[in-house]
Amino acid sequence: MAKIISTTEEFNAEISKPNTVVDFYADWCGPCKMFAPLFDQVSQEATDSNFIKVNVDELREVADKYEIKSIPTVVKFENGNEVKRNVGSLGKDALLDFAK
């Protein structure tokens, strides 16, 4: 299961690792709720990637820093640097490809 991040410091530590995939979401977001089980499933299968989740309402400063305007948004980081982004849900195969 993907780790839920609760502080900015924790977020910064996690994205500094190689190959980190972040799901930016909110509890009230219907599409986010539908995407969450798939994100968790892929996090179990793609063991070479680090999967984390960030609630944009709880970590507003992180969401603002990375200009998250719509959710769900999935962002991939390599050693602290954003390398790609997808706004909206992804299917399983697309998410697996995204995480590579």
From TrEMBL:
MF-aspect GO terms: protein-disulfide reductase activity
Domain of life: Bacteria
Subcellular location: Cytoplasm
Keyword Nuclease: no
Residue(s) at site: Deprotonates C-terminal active site Cys: D23
Active site residues of this protein: C29, C32
Disulfides per UniProt: C29-C32
Official protein name in the record: Thioredoxin
Organism per entry: Spiroplasma gladiatoris
